Amino acid sequence: MFRQLSNKIVLITGASAGIGEACAKIFYQNGNHVILCGRRLDRLNKVKEDLEKQQQKEANKYKVLAVEVDVSSLDSIKKMVSNLPEDMKNVDVLVNNAGLALGTDLIVDIDSGKDLDAIMDTNVKGVFRVTREFLPGMIKRNSGHIFNVSSIAGSMFYPNGGMYCASKAAVNAFTDILRKEVVATKIRVTNVCPGLVETEFSLVRFSGDAEKAKKPYLGIDPLTPEDIADNIYYAASRPEHVQITTIETMANNQASTTVIHRT
């Protein structure tokens, strides 16, 4: 059973599509203010427009902001935070969802400059930097919930995924340490580790090649962004004394990153 979670300020990175967009919808539909963050402002505005249409139908008064930010850039994060309206600065729920993978090269073939920087700056530094901006306020208010969207790849390593697996392992460690460091507060910290979720993730990984992007999901009914958003909202809506530390979710017929039964 869901506990009513309402009138909270929820900030979601990578909110223009996929898991981030699905999180925005479920939190908003349950009566919360939502800050949509991402690099594609046009897509964020479309999500905002869709949510506000729903608001008009239901006569809700919840706010939606679309804010352009590149989490791989500290300057961009600082600008985003400074531009938030005063009444939206005290973020109650932070969903660090922005992340990416690039290619499936062996470690010996990975571009040690551009590709490595893009993965680590987004998946690792981005999570740290965004968290660092809002954590002091949560500590001061003695409340808040931080979700870091990692992956089963952060603990189930596989060849041809070296830098991506390493980045998600770092997220796992960061999340575990953060939870221990705020243990004396009422702040909750949840690590979210999905398996195969059909989103634009593969399209980005394969540089826009739609045919290659389809292959990971062939022969299996993959998870949807809504499945993961449902998990996140469930954890957020637990009674205050309940902290769900880790959510590991895979599609039926998937047992690990590499053990998958396909029909």
From TrEMBL:
GO terms for molecular function: oxidoreductase activity, acting on the CH-OH group of donors, NAD or NADP as acceptor. Residues 41-68 form a coiled coil. Keywords: Coiled coil, Oxidoreductase. Transmembrane segments: none annotated. It holds the Pfam family adh_short. Belongs to the short-chain dehydrogenases/reductases (SDR) family. This is Short-chain dehydrogenase/reductase family protein. It comes from Polysphondylium violaceum.
